[in-house]
Amino acid sequence: MPVKSPTSQILGTSACYLLVNLNLSLIVQRPLPDLAMFSRAARVPRALASRTRAPIALAARPRFVTTDAASSSLSAKVPKDDNETFSVNLSDESFETYELDPPPYTIDVTKAELKQMYYDMVAVRQMEMAADRLYKEKKIRGFCHLSTGQEAVAVGIEHAITKEDDIITAYRCHGFALMRGGTVRSIIGELLGRREGIAYGKGGSMHMFSKGFYGGNGIVGAQVPVGAGLAFAHKYNDTKKASIILYGDGASNQGQVFEAFNMAKLWNLPALFGCENNKYGMGTSAARSSALTDYYKRGQYIPGLKVNGMDILAVKAAVKYGTEWTAADKGPMVLEYVTYRYGGHSMSDPGTTYRTREEIQRMRSTNDPIAGLKQRILDWEVASEDELKKIDKEARSHVQEEVAIAEAMAVPEPKPSILYEDIYVRGSEPKFIRGRHADENYYFNQ
Amino acid sequence: MSRILRPAARLTRAAAPRAPIAPSTSTLAQVSRAALARNAYYGASQTRAYADGSGVKEYTVRDALNEALAEELEANPKVFILGEEVAQYNGAYKVTKGLLDRFGEKRVIDTPITESGFTGLAVGAALSGLHPVCEFMTFNFAMQAIDQIVNSAAKTLYMSGGIQPCNITFRGPNGFAAGVAAQHSQDYSAWYGSIPGLKVVSPWSAEDAKGLLKAAIRDPNPVCVLENELMYGQSFPMSEAAQKDDFVIPFGKAKIERAGKDLTIVSLSRCVGQALVAAEGLKKKYGVEAEVINLRSVKPLDVETIIQSIKKTHRLMVVESGYPMFGVSAEILALSMEYAFDYLDAPAQRVTGAEVPTPYAQGLEEMSFPTEQLIEDHAAKLLRV
């Protein structure tokens, strides 16, 4: 700090900052008369420091929640029947909480469900790998953000909620679209810009919608208040259902995220905000973008829950706890899914300039969500190695078949009736829409 | 400066003079004089329509908007209104007065000062199937939320391939008020009017206000209703039909507020009233009949009515209070080139707000926006009378 006058010491740092921003010479010449003017600024922020957990000191510390993908353990013998429930213990490093009692560290599962979870995660990964290949073959245009490494979040959430709950996320949305009922062919078809794509070739990689799934949104952070609106509608209609709102660690610094927090708490909305912390917002690491990297504490007055986002069982347990919380009318919660993206931010990013290859390799080899669940399934003798191989093969061949179907789909015919459909709700269109010049005007009643 | 770059107005002057326009002898003229005697702000054709209607009542624009909101809240439980100070305060401009008492805090919701947030929230509620009316205290503040209006509301239906509609109404005062300086005086008609997926309306009279707002709430698309603070207190006659709860004004249809044969003046919002006064002045001083078209709807735009009128009058002037460049009037002038070039006897003209951040001092503010005299004088120049 360039100025170290008695004034700045009395006022404390925040007021000092203001002074430095003013004309320097002015302060040096007459430091005292300004005191009264700034006294209010100096008094205000001090009272906040006495919270139980001092947040500032924690900003740079390592993450305490484990990212071990195979951290759960068994408490009793696994039943024979595929659909009989049994309890699984989660690692005591699965959660960290903020102003919140932690969720139960045991979760009921069935063998069938574990196998389904495994299948779903493999399918999501296979689909993303197919997208990767198609992109490199130049068959996918524009942006393409893959979620490889983050599968446990999309799949774990879906296994914790009902079809009447809502999900909204940003542009890394393929896995969510699949879990919400999209088919591999419709999603890949969309990436390929096909007429039978999930958005009829109009949305592309970032914009996919289905029942209970509200996108697929391309403006970082803008989906968060929209998601609060979905929660508002649940409250308005008294459905007792929840809105799952996802955003990245990068988006968490957008102002409107905090605006959404405020209204959600104020109006006690059933909103489960969830920061998918994959450690990098594009190429900017969490620590370089966020003054407080404990994203689950970012709700300040909203209880927070940090979850091992590499362990699908921990994700399921956390979200289930969240939906019970909102159903009991306890208002919003801010979750943080600690995860990792193996690939770059998008297809154009090799993902190696802002992080080391070793880091990626370590996460892939030791914390992979699919390998983690596989390990548990084998350890608990839920399924044999052969059975899992069969599931792998099943998922792979399903994706392959669907990709082939998608590639065979027709592109939307480049004609006005298709170009101009769905700008407005059918039947409520204006008489005509203007094309590139006056002769191209398209009349809807043709 | 080359001839081609000179303003079109100067080209007009340079051109050979034509025969002066014959003074009008239409019967309309007499009626409109009677109309002016009652109220300078509404036009001849309107008065004629009500001349024998017994059930006509005077409504302020504010009352008309309030009635529209109340009727739609009554008619559909999915409709709710949210915004800053809409409930307990009764609305910053009292448009939502009494709605909280009548419909309760579930349907009439005070938001924090958080435009981006509450607009996004309203959009989310709309995606979920509710029909929010999102009030901005003024549209100047909606700039904080314009991403939500444009990217989240207007584009989602198309991006989703038609599976995700967004039935939402954004409303609030737009354009300049009196003495509120630059940040509170902007007209957004051109901004929202340029966005595919949005519909944009801008009422002038009480009937406009009621019919357009009700239509906006019922329309399944996102609609911006750009009101004008200076009009809220203005009174207009409201026909018996318009007082009913099923009254809506279809979008994309302009209204000829005053018929004429010598000049087409296209205008919207508050400038419609000014154009009508100017038209009366033109008649009185020069004996010319200007046709005044109230756009009502900015998007979709009623190109047909404008072009029909130009084909009749052969002269076009557009009056609006937005910034001059890339504005509503620029668009209409361009359309006149495309569709009516051969019918124009003089270069089309526009009277707009000046290209200046609105100043506070009254004399300077007056210089920044169209006045009745300015419209009249410029029309006279265009007509070369």
From TrEMBL, chain A:
Q: What is this protein called?
A: Pyruvate dehydrogenase E1 component subunit alpha
According to the entry, every stretch annotated as the Dehydrogenase E1 component domain falls at: 119-414
Question: One of this protein's GO BP terms?
Answer: pyruvate decarboxylation to acetyl-CoA
Q: What does this protein do?
A: The pyruvate dehydrogenase complex catalyzes the overall conversion of pyruvate to acetyl-CoA and CO(2).
Q: What is the lineage of its organism?
A: Eukaryota, Fungi, Dikarya, Ascomycota, Pezizomycotina
The prosthetic group or cofactor this protein requires is: thiamine diphosphate
Keyword annotations of the record: Oxidoreductase, Pyruvate, Thiamine pyrophosphate
Question: Could you tell me the superkingdom of the organism this chain comes from?
Answer: Eukaryota
Catalytic activity annotated for this protein?
N(6)-[(R)-lipoyl]-L-lysyl-[protein] + pyruvate + H(+) = N(6)-[(R)-S(8)-acetyldihydrolipoyl]-L-lysyl-[protein] + CO2
Q: What is its EC number?
A: 1.2.4.1
The first-level EC class reads oxidoreductase
* GO terms, molecular function: pyruvate dehydrogenase (acetyl-transferring) activity
Q: Which Pfam families match?
A: E1_dh (PF00676)
UniProtKB/TrEMBL annotation, chain B:
For this protein, the record's Gene3D superfamilies field holds: 3.40.50.920, 3.40.50.970
- Record InterPro entries: PDHB_mito-type (IPR027110), THDP-binding (IPR029061), Transketo_C/PFOR_II (IPR009014), Transketolase-like_Pyr-bd (IPR005475), Transketolase_C (IPR033248)
Q: Where are the transmembrane segments?
A: none
Record field: catalytic activity: N(6)-[(R)-lipoyl]-L-lysyl-[protein] + pyruvate + H(+) = N(6)-[(R)-S(8)-acetyldihydrolipoyl]-L-lysyl-[protein] + CO2
Q: What cofactor is this protein dependent on?
A: thiamine diphosphate
One Pfam family this sequence matches: Transket_pyr
Compartment(s) where it occurs, according to its Swiss-Prot or TrEMBL record: Mitochondrion
Query: Which EC main class describes this enzyme?
Result: oxidoreductase
Q: What is this protein called?
A: Pyruvate dehydrogenase E1 component subunit beta
Q: Which organism is it from?
A: Emericellopsis cladophorae
